[in-house]
Structures are given as structure tokens and as C-alpha cells.
Amino acid sequence: MDEQKLDGNAAAGVLAEIFTFEITTARSTCVNCGATGEVGAQMAYVSEIGTVVRCAVCDNPLIRIVRQDAGPQRYWLDLKGIEYLQLQERL
Amino acid sequence: MTDAPRKLTWRIGEVVETSPDTPRTKRLFLDVPGWEGHRAGQHVDVRLTAEDSYQAQRSYSIASAPEDGRVELLIERLEDGEVSPYLTDEIRTGDGLELRGPIGGWFAWDAREGGPLFLVAGGSGIAPLMAMIRHRQATGSGTPVRLLFSSRSYEDVIFREELERLAAEDETLQITHTLTRSTPPGWKGYDRRIDEEMLGEIAFSPDERPLVFVCGPTPLVEAVATALVGLGYEPTRVKTERFGPTGG
Fold it and tell me: Are B238 and B228 in contact (CB under 8 A)?
């Protein structure tokens, strides 16, 4: 399975399917190392089966998304690598 | 402009013009009904559906300025690509193209954010940076910009004529090329891959706290980002956009 290592920004499309806020400029704190930064500045691993956003500092998985396309769209979203996510409206 | 919460949905844009650029790239101009505008640096997802309903999806940066009513995409033809050969060879004016966007607020620049702005592009990685240069031009922003642009050869320099024209009429826009595979006779510019020494010569000094955007193939982006941090640039002011190894 091809998996592409990309910037967190590459996960913006699938994240925008779920969240109404812009996620790439949201700030996440990693539960493993405590690093805080914008989601777009983390690393995204994108493959056919799903997307994993990993901490740019310690490589801990922050966000995992698997999408089922057949039938009604269904998502599995794992955020347990994130201590908290700070979302902000853009002015 | 505020980002009102909205759901990202697929819609059909109409190809209103196509134009060749370099031997391996093509420009597509789209009219997207209801387009709510974008920020320079954002991308769209494009989706093609085959007759057997197999779908292939790719992301393309928007090359046009937000001030331009049309959405311009720059397509690089990849020989074994699933999407790009259709977009460079088959699609015609009047055809529809399924897309969604604009996407991604992180790798984006608004003129009001100021600068100075240091842009580093490899090949078709120029697309989102071109949107920034055009946005700056359209808004009359005086933000100083330096672009370091790596291409294979002179013929492969994307948007070459427009970049030359913009730089000729604006001394606060400095453009430096490096050609990595072949150079024309009499070429006096750089002829190697971007390295720390080159960045040290071209970039604004770290003291000027430039905003840096780097876009291109993964090896170029990683080399440039690592070198810039080594030279003392603030990591949080260096934003990167990697193309994947396959793309297409």
C-alpha cells in the first residue's frame, strides 16, 4: 500500500469533511511529548485506507481517520493522541 | 472575509480556458459557480470518475490570486499518473471538472500579514506561491518578496514570462532561478540544487523575521526546511507543502 508522507495541510480536505472549523490552523497538544502547534505543521501520512496525522516532534499519532466510501459515508475518527485541540474562528 | 462554518462539498467547475505553459505543464482556468473566494496558497481537490465509477482524487494548488474571479490550476503531466494526463491532454474548454475547495488555511498568506516574504519553489511547487505573488501585486502590497525557484532547465521554468514581467516593474520583488539539469548558453545564475549556501545568499536575514513558504517535491522541501532552521530561521515561520512521491 502506497503511503505518502506529507504536511498536515494535506489532511485538510478529509478533516473539512468532518469539522466545520478550519483544522489546519487549529492548535493541538500532543499527549506523548506535550508539543503544541498548528495541525498544518504536523506530518500527514495519506493512503487509500486513511489518513494519520503525526506529531512533527515525536511522531506520535495525533489524528487517525478511516473513511468508508461504499454505501453511506462512514468515518472512524481517533483523536486520543491529542491532549486538546484549540479551534478558533478566523476573523 | 470570515470563514463561516460550511460543509465542504463537491461541485462542478467549468473549464473556460486552457493554456500550455512549459513542455510538461498546462494551465486550466475554471469558472466555479458560487465560488466564495480563496486565500493565496490554498488548494482544491479534483475528482475524476470513470465509466465503471472508479474514482481518482488529487489535490492541486490554486495559482490564481483571490482577486481573480477564475480559479487557475497548474497541471504537471506525470506519465503514469491517473489524473494529470487527462487534465493536460484530454480536457477541453466547456468541459466540467468535479472539485471541492478552497481547502487548507495553514499554507496561506494574506497581504495584510505583511512579511518580508521568502518563497522557495521546486518545479510546479510554484503554483501556490504564484497565487501569493499575484495577490501581492493585485492588492498593491509593498511587502518585499524574494523568490528562489528551482527548475530543471530554462524551458521548464513555469510562469517564466509573467515572473520576468512582474520583477522588471517592481524592485521589491526579487526572483532568483537555479537550473538543476541543463543551462542555456551564457547562463550566469545558479546551476545546482538548492543548498544552505544558496539560501544564505538569497534569503532575508533571520533578523528580518521573514515569513517563509516552501513548496515542491519532498526531497527539496525537506532539504530547504532543514537548512533554513540550521541558518537560524524560526521554525514556526517556515511553512512547507510537500508533493508526494507519486502524485499525478
Answer: yes
B128-148: pLDDT as tens digits: 999 999 999 999 999 999 999
Taking the whole predicted model, whether its pTM rises above 0.90 is answered as yes
Give the residue carrying C-alpha cell 480563496. Answer: B38
Closest residue of chain B to A20, computed from CA coordinates: B5
A38 touching B (Cβ < 8 Å): yes
CB-based contact A5 B2, cutoff 8 Å:
no
Rounded to a whole number of angstroms, the distance from the CA of B1 to the nearest CA of chain A is: 7
Looking at the domain B111-243, which fold is it?
Rossmann fold (3.40.50)
pLDDT at position B1 is 47
Interchain CB contact of A91 with B (< 8 Å)? yes
Class of domain B11-103: mainly beta
Contacts of A4 in chain B (CB under 8 A): 244-246
Secondary structure (3-state) at B221 = helix
List all residues of chain A from 42 to 61 with a beta carbon under 8 Å from chain B: 46
Residue of A5, A9, A37 with shortest CB distance to B107: A9
Chain A CB within 8 Å of residue B2 CB: yes
Q: CA-CA distance, A36 to A48, in Å (whole number)?
A: 28
Give the mean pLDDT of chain B.
93
Residue B144's nearest CA partner among B168, B114, B120 is B114
Structure confidence by residue, pLDDT tens digits, B45-91: 999 998 998 888 899 999 999 999 999 999 999 988 889 999 999 99
Chain A residue numbers touching B43 (CB-CB < 8 A): 12
| Spans of all domains in chain B | 11-103, 111-243
Task: Dump strand ranges (E) for A8-81.
Answer: 27-30, 36-38, 43-47, 50-54, 61-68, 74-78
Domain borders along chain A are 3-86
